Amino acid sequence: MLLRLEQFWSDQGCVLLQPYSSEVGAGTFNPATFFRVLGPEPWKAAYVEPSRRPKDGRYGENPNRLQHFYQYQVVLKPSPPDVLEIYLESLRHIGIDLAKHDVRFVEDDWESPTLGAWGLGWEVWLDGQEITQFTYFQQSGGFDLEPISAEITYGIERIACYLQGVERIMDLRWSNDMRWDELFLRSEVEWSTFNFEQSDPGLLSELFEKFEKEAERLFKAGLVLPGYDCVIKCSHLFNLLEARGAISVTERVGTIARVRKLARRAAGAYLKQREEMGYPLLKGAAPGGAVALPETPRG
Amino acid sequence: MAETLLLEIGCEELPAGVIDPALLALESSAREGLKSARMAFRSLRAAGTPRRLALIVEGVADRQEEQLREVMGPAVRVGFDANGSPTNAARGFAKGAGVPVESLTRVTTPKGEYLLARVHDTGKPSREVLPALLAAWIKGLAFPKTMHWNSTGRFSRPVRWIVALLGNDVLPVQAFGIEAGRRTRGHRTIAPVWFDIASPERYAAELLTHGVVVDRGERRARVSELVREAAASCGGTAVPDPELVDEVTNLVEWPEAVLGRFEERFLALPRPVVVTAMRAHQRYFAVEAESARLLPHYVAIRNGRGEGAQSIRRGTEMVLRARLEDARFYWENDRKVGLEGKVRELSGIVWHEKLGSIHDRTLRLERLAGELARAIAPKSVGVVTRAAHLCKADLATEMIRSGKEFAALEGIVGAEYAAAQGEAAEVVSAIRDHIRPQGPDDPLPESVEGTLLALADRLDVIVGGFRAGLEVSGSQDPYGLRRAGNGIVRILLEKGIRLDVEAQARWLGSLYDQAGIPEGLSGFVEFWVQRVANGLEGRGVPYDTSAAVLAVRPGDPLDALARAKAIEEIRQTTDFEGLMIGYRRVANILKTASPEDIAGSDQPLAERAEAFGDKVESDLHLATKIARQAVETHLQAQAPDYPAILRHLLELRPTIDRFFEAVMVMSDDVSARRRRLGLLEAVRQTFIRIAEFSALPIAPGQKSV
Nearest C-alpha of chain B: how many angstroms from A219? Predict the structure, then answer.
């Protein structure tokens, strides 16, 4: 399935990238999305991203909720006019017969308060199950976006369940002779235990503060990408603290605001850097990005 | 010849909630637009689905109605020269108006004689006028949230095609960089193709053959019927949920029902939890038996038809099982700990950094609710205190803390846990009640105990909010202080409970003092007065009367309402003027006096009548003393007779008049001056036991603005 997605989006002109090397809650945190959607340069990329959501751990007992799962992330900038049709085509390409399923685009205003990013779009449902998050990015790092990017985030395990006709992620065949539970169950149990019971809130808070300071120091030194890595770390540490129940409702708001402030600085620094570099990816394209022409009707 | 107009705005999937408002807006802008463009039509209606907003206008006239207009031109003396020949000014005007210069007539105005053109406007053909109108209607649609998808404008979701037909012809409409045509798209999975609409009359029928029920009402009826049938097929009825029917109607272009099932073991979960798991995200309809007991079935509405019902049912079952599994996970873990344990865990949850934990809050609620119960319903002290102890415990449960759909069940789920661990029924219902009312139209708490707890809970939010320095400004109410205040006023007025909220707030403040939480913002009284004023306004009390009664003793809304009603009553009569003149004479002269003169007068009513030299003085002294005693006696009553109090005040009038006729108040003799001013101040004090009358106009029935 992943191979087919890679082939499909490669044919659509996407750069195929690899996962980022730091713990993230979603592929959006990967610099290939967070930074690349900023500014006028066009961008098309696709990659797998392991996503960690400490709070969602269920010790491997819930058939489709995990604290570690995979996303397949596609970013298209600018968003093509027939982007939804292309997306549906990608589902057919991986073997989903749309006529035999209930495909639904359910309103979802996506927001990442820590990244200062938001967009409008949908959860895509296949028979009541959310399989994809589709977002037209409006802001990232607090900056208005132009041109607008479309972000498509496939939930790999859930789609795979459909394709393999199994009801629990644990029963997924990951290869011809390996099942998901054989590969990941132990890890899910251990991480759930760590996230909910064993993580050290004191240490996590201390690390949060240190990475926050380090991010500020690096931004001052003009190092955008290393600084942003610290922001990613802060965000993950925040998620761990929250899963541990170590953050109150009011602290939560304040802590999120601290991460958002850093993300904003990162975005501002990146925009400045690209401008100074003369927007190398613009190449022949008109400044401000090509305006999408109306869709040519396809039969 | 009259023709039918069709406009279809083709979109990517619109949010269910915006469709109905957008269709209404489209209808009304079309109705007004056609009217002001003088274009007759027979009927007009909007239709729509998540992927299209459409407008069908039947019997559109082929041109604008003709019209006779009169246009004023230059003054006659400018328009004609001395010889009576038209000047360039007159020629220019006539040309501009499109009439021959000879046809200009004259009209006399206060400013002199002017030229007037009578213009016969024959109107333009509809197909010339309509394109601009249609484009304006499209652009004029407003949504609560809009987005960009390219640089052509904002809409709820991207607009991808536009159909604009008048009769069989395409109208040249342009919007969002798209040229209108006759091509539309069928249902995403039933007929994922572009096809042409031959004529507006064929629109609905052709869409139907492409898997789209475009009329919203028709689709809604189908959804209701499908849900009913499916529920009946497993021997139950769908739990009535008109809002969900509305929403589901606007999530699909072609509805079909899928009946699903979940394992019976999940029925051991509380009903609100099970229904929420089905309803909140999945939009499934719950099914119950005649006994109102839930059945392990649900109805899901699919957007599509044909093959696949099996796999869809399996898919929906799987996702519902995961949600119910989550709920069961929370429910069992929480019950292992029990509510007492959860109450202890509340000390780990910060309410606000300046105000301590939710556990601190719980301790305050226990004391405050107990205090209220002692004052209002002494028999309920035990139940209220127990309910106060447990009412916030659900905030520590995993069911609520998960942040999942069940988090909306705060209070409700707390009551379920309390019931499950065998708390008394009164305690359970008080917990369920204490979160009510959530908004101005929400139901109030039912039980006495729940009412008291709801009052305590809201008062703590407000007093705590002020201590923490949470400002309420403009339309912002991020911490719900205003909502809490309005809730208290509503409860007290609708339930007829007398409570001096200001005094309770002071008492509660002393608990904060004991905990070492310092005073924060001032302005509680202003805030509270505004809440009560809103409550009184909702009951038809005019602004000035409400300001007058709330200027004194605003703490008790029910009492303020009684005083306002008495004043409103007397304001309709001629007595009012007498009352007001008496008060004004007293108040006006006091206003001109220096503060030392009034301050120097010491409690004149306590003095004996002999202290007052003049007979008119001692008369006023006596009359005031009697009136004051009567007023105070009335005020002791549970429900004071305010009309009677006002009559006592009215009776002071002749004595006041005689006093002013006979005595020179501002005498040069300091001691006489101070004595008289002191006496008048005592009169004023008696009046303002009821209201600050200076906020009111004198004349009866007259409302000040």
Answer: 30
Q: Could you tell me if B161 lies within 8 Å of chain A, comparing CB atoms?
A: yes
Residues of B in contact with A146 (CB under 8 A): 148, 151
Query: Which tokens go with B37?
Result: 């463009």
In chain A, which segments carry CATH 1.20.58.180?
200-282
B152 contacts in chain A (CB < 8 Å):
291
Interface pTM, i.e. ipTM: 0.86
| Domains in chain B: ranges and CATH | 3-63+125-209 (3.30.70), 67-121 (no CATH), 216-341 (no CATH), 354-391+434-539 (no CATH), 563-695 (1.10.730)
B140-192 pLDDT per residue, tens: 999 999 999 988 899 999 999 999 999 999 999 999 999 999 999 999 999 99
CB contact, 8 Å: A57 with chain B?
A: no
Helix, strand, coil in percent for chain A, rounding step 5: 45, 25, 30
Distance CA B116, CA B112 (A): 13
Mean pLDDT, consecutive 10-residue segments, chain A of 299 residues?
Answer: 90 92 87 93 94 90 86 94 95 90 90 90 90 94 93 92 85 91 93 93 94 95 93 93 81 88 94 91 57 42
Q: Do A98 and B189 touch (CB under 8 A)?
A: yes
Residue extent(s) of CATH 3.30.930.10 domains in chain A: 2-196
Does the predicted model carry a pTM greater than 0.90? no
Contact B177 A294 (CB under 8 A): yes
Q: Where are the alpha helices (DSSP H) in B346-405?
A: 358-376, 381-390, 398-401
- Which residue in B51, B146, B151 has the most chain A C-beta atoms within 10 A of its own C-beta, making it the best mutation to test that interface? B151
What does each C-alpha distance from B128 to A129, A141, B54, B163, B218 come to in angstroms?
A: 49, 47, 21, 17, 34
What fold is seen in the domain A2-196? BirA Bifunctional Protein; domain 2 (3.30.930)
B543 min Cα distance to partner chain A (Å): 38
Contacts of A167 (CB under 8 A, 6+ apart): A63, A161, B314, B318, B321
A63, A81, A120: residue with CB nearest B322: A63
Answer yes or no: do A102 and B190 touch at CB < 8 A: no
Mark yes or no for CB contact A98/B326 under 8 Å.
no
Q: Reduce the DSSP state of residue B541 to 3 states and report it.
A: coil
Distance of alpha carbon B112 from alpha carbon B75, whole angstroms:
7
Contact B95, B119 (CB under 8 A): no
What CA–CA distance (Å, rounded) separates A177 from B508? 67
Pick the CATH number of A200-282 from 1.20.58.180, 1.10.3720.10, 3.30.200.20, 3.90.1150.10: 1.20.58.180
